[in-house]
Design goal:
This protein has 438 residues and is an all-alpha fold. Helices cover 72% and strands 0% of the residues. The longest helix is centred in the C-terminal third of the chain and has 30 residues.
């Protein structure tokens, strides 16, 4: 830790004057890079589904099963990730996760059987990426920022969009010219390159280097460091959530969010484009262009969540997403009509995250936000896993993605209605009884 205290950068102690660089922004920058690369890696299934199908003869349902397991474990690890970061530190957790992901990617080109795809991609990468996903953004924003926390959360969340924008087209080009193995090796090299960056610059808490969180008052008491078992802490938070109606509403809407984004569109949009005669590289470029609008939507959503009722924001986001998914099956006629969907859908792909995080804080308190968000992300990824598997199953059974897209659109309209009831309190209808005069 002493290396940071003697750093040449002028580091402020909680001031927001803007004259000196607070170390929280350096931590946020490293976090953004890790989330950026992680997002690009999670987009790989859209690129390698068809090549694996062609080379090994595996059905799309089999490949989708491995992708679904990865998405499910990615979500299941989220609450334990938050508790582990609280107990053992953010930097150590990130280093272990990156090492696991890098090793799994390095082994992937050697596979010969479908069970190896399930092990390397589904289990190992699913567990590893679960520790460096959106919960990481929530933990960093909560620990290092009091002022501008919503904006920082929005920017970190937008790394998911930026990762797709930067990685998908180059990865599709490498796959088309050199094969999927070369593409996987390139991603593994990037993952390993992040490890020394995290080791040298990432820190766990502001207090560890003698700082306060950005914008924190001078007389504020530092947050107590959790000392309990992280597994017990995670399940205690789950038990608390299961006794509150808001948890079911937040988890239910986020389940539909996962099913309609990374589970369905992230996994199956490129194969659906190929089915309709759109080349793989062009389809990957389309998905990357969606990420550009996604970046704008996520950043703007973080700003709006500090100013507008978050329930209304979620109602609008899910409603528009549902309409766009109902339109999608009829947009494959031309690249122009599909581009309209990309703009419309891209603006709210991950715009749901900042208002959801804020509603979690309002329902369960600031100190519980990260762990509760972890459990809700777990449900989100279960939704994504279901959509990834059933999307492939529907395609195998009906020879079309029409049923998957239409069902997902209707679920999003249901989520829009559910969002309006988050935090809703029933009025007390008990009549007031006036005590008789003495």
């Amino acid at each position: 830790m002493t290396g940071v205290q003697t750093c040449a950068l002028p580091i402020s102690r909680g001031d927001v004057s803007g004259k000196r660089i607070h170390y929280g922004f350096i931590v946020a920058a490293v976090t953004f890079l890790v989330l950026l690369v992680g997002a690009g890696m999670r987009a790989l299934p859209g690129v390698f589904v068809v090549p694996l199908e062609s080379e090994f003869g595996w059905s799309r349902a089999t490949i989708s099963l491995a992708v679904g397991i990865c998405i499910g474990l990615y979500g299941l690890m989220a609450p334990f990730s938050a508790a582990t970061m609280d107990r053992f530190g953010v930097r150590g957790t990130m280093l272990g996760a990156l090492a696991l992901i890098g090793c799994a990617l390095a082994l992937l080109p050697l596979m010969k059987h479908s069970w190896q795809l399930i092990l390397f991609w589904g289990v190992m990468i699913g567990c590893g990426i679960g520790f460096v996903a959106n919960v990481l953004a929530a933990v960093v924003a909560a620990r290092w920022f009091v002022e501008k926390r919503g904006t920082v959360m929005g920017v970190l969340t937008s790394a998911t969009a930026a990762g797709q924008l930067l990685f998908l087209p180059p990865l599709a080009i490498v796959t088309a010219h050199y094969g999927w193995r070369a593409m996987v090796i390139c991603v593994a090299a990037v993952i390993f390159a992040l490890i020394p960056l995290v080791w040298f610059f990432m820190r766990n808490r502001p207090e560890d280097i003698g700082l306060r969180a950005y914008g924190e008052l001078a007389d504020a008491k530092p947050a107590a460091k959790p000392s309990g078992n992280p597994i017990r802490t995670a399940f205690a938070a789950l038990w608390q959530g299961l006794r509150q109606r808001d948890f079911y509403l937040l988890a239910g809407t986020f389940f539909i969010c996962g099913a309609s984004t990374n589970g369905l569109i992230g996994t199956h949009l490129i194969p659906a484009c190929i089915d309709n005669g759109i080349p793989e590289v062009m389809a990957a470029s389309l998905l990357a262009s969606m990420a550009l609008f996604n970046f704008i939507g996520a950043t703007g959503s973080g700003w709006l969540s500090d100013r507008i009722d978050c329930r209304l924001l979620l109602f609008m986001y899910y409603g528009l997403r549902g309409l766009s998914l109902l339109y999608l099956p009829f947009s494959f006629d031309t690249f122009y009509t599909l581009s309209i969907f990309a703009v419309f859908y891209g603006l709210d792909w991950i715009a749901t995250i900042p208002p959801t995080v804020k509603l979690i804080g309002q329902s369960f308190g600031r100190e519980k936000t990260a762990v509760m968000y972890g459990w809700i992300v777990c449900v989100h990824q279960i939704g994504g896993a279901c959509a990834a598997f059933f999307g492939g199953l529907f395609r195998t059974t009906f020879d079309t993605y029409m049923h998957a897209f239409m069902l997902s659109g209707m679920l999003c309209l249901l989520a829009a209605i559910m969002a309006l009831f988050i935090g809703y309190k029933r009025k007390d209808t008990t009549p007031n009884v006036v005590a008789p005069a003495t």
